[in-house]
Amino acid sequence: MRRLCAVVMLAATVGCTAAAPPPPPWPAVRNVIFVTIDTLRADHTSVGGYPAPTTPFLERLAARGVTFDRAYSHSATTAPSHASMFTGLLPIQHRVQTNGLRLADELATLPEVLSEAGWDTAGVVAVPMIFRSSALTRGFSEFTSRTVVRRPETYRPADATAAAAADWLRARDGDTDPFFLWMHVYDPHNPLRPPDEAIEAVSPTNERSERQRRRALREQNIQRRPTSRTNRQVLQYDAEIRFVDDQLERLHAVTEELGLNDDTLWVVTADHGQGLGTHRWYGHHVQLYNEQLHVPMILRFPGDWNAGHRVSEHAATHVDLAPTLLEILGLGPLAQALPLPGRSLVPLFGTTPEWDRTAVFAERRIAIEDGRGLGNAGPKLEEGTRQALQTLTRKYMLVSHGPDEYYHLDADPYEQINLIDEADIEARLLRDQLMALVAALDTGGTAATVSEADLEELRALGYVQ
Predict the structure, then answer these.
(1) Domain identity same for 191 and 144
(2) Beta strands of 96-160 (E only): which ranges?
(3) What is the rounded CA–CA span in Å between residue 329 and residue 324?
């Protein structure tokens, strides 16, 4: 794949004798700021309709860009989902199917491709170990570690991470090379200790706003009694989201100050969501329900091109991001030549898109001895796999240790009623498609594991058991 990258890259960047394609409709994009927010479920963002003001900056960014209302991760785990974003491959293909596994050297990443094509690449992240151990730091000319740590956790909070990103941008002021800046923030991940001002910003201000918030939690099947542990944790979770949103706004002010937004594409998404009590599960990593897979995805172009466009009738996924960015940056032939399951989202920028994706794949492969659910009543999960295939209205889940699951998402968006005993022809078709997909893609190989020292740090962060 690396040799293929080099060959196609040469054709894409140097040119060939064929007639040049017509210019794209969007303004020229030189730079990319790629933001991934850890553990951010889409339905707790105000840009996604949540009644509390968790993401006012993202609302403004969406009003100036393109928003994908049905964007999904392929895993509820950090390393697999980021590996899919950077390789354009499903976890079952790149084999980083859980934390603590390394991406194979022969698989090229988006930062590597862009670096070879002349982009200046930098990664500014809150928890570097998860990405270093998974070999997802490849291709970055600069990769910053945490220097300011929120105790007792060992991650850099969003304000310090955004400040480090701003410092990198200021330091290269006047540099004529295009850049790809990836910023990862961690704060909505447990443990939750948001600043007081963030809690105040998202707390209900009157009885009406409290009712709206309670109604939203009830729809999400989250316990909502004011004195309950869940309600307190949800408020803290919402506040951490607001804290991150405020730091993104500050970084955006820096790019505006430096005049970068005139030719910079902003991409904002999340690696996965969070349980928060839905399906009686607080965390992530082990389930494939949509509170853990449905993520925000916003692309804001220079000049506010296609401002306010929302894609609601088609699904977008993490594996679509690499081919989308390559096409936007003028490297479309590379995306077309690589055997990627993802598709460029460019056709969805129009009002009458030509788009024929029918289903989205997700998987989890972990071994866990004890469930960490809602107190002692939480589920106990055995070692095994779960693989899911969903359309906009249906979802089928293969479960290796237990009965399969089947949901009508249009009537039951939070997957509360398992209809596997009433499986219809659509269920059988989804099951057959899912089994065929797994059989075609699963090579049976296993990615290399990280060192024992790295595993110890990942355990300290709560990333591995």
Answers:
(1) yes
(2) 120-125, 142-144
(3) 9
**Residue 355 forms part of a structural domain:** no
Is residue 83 within 8 A of residue 92, CB to CB? The reply is no
CATH code for the domain of 456? 3.30.1120.10
CATH code at 121? 3.40.720.10
DSSP string for 45-105: SGGGT-SS-S-HHHHHHHHTSEEESSEE-S-SSHHHHHHHHHHS--HHHH---STTBPPPT
Could you say which of 349, 378, 403 is where a domain stops? 349
Which residue range(s) make up the domain with 249?
A: 28-349
Using the CB atoms, write b or e for 397-435: b if 16+ within 10 Å: bbbeeeebbbbbeeeebbbeeeeeeeeeeebeebbebbe
CA proximity to 32, closest of 300, 342, 347, 399: 300
- Note whether 284 and 274 are within 8 A (CB): yes
150 with 267, same domain: the answer is: yes
**Residue closest to 301 by CA, chosen among 345, 334, 270, 267:** 267
In degrees, to the nearest 5, what angle opens at C-alpha 463 toward C-alphas 460 and 465?
80
- What pLDDT, in 10s, does the model give residues 347-363? 999 877 777 777 999 99
- Model pLDDT for residues 269-314, shown as the tens digit of each residue: 999 999 998 988 888 888 899 999 999 999 999 999 999 999 999 9
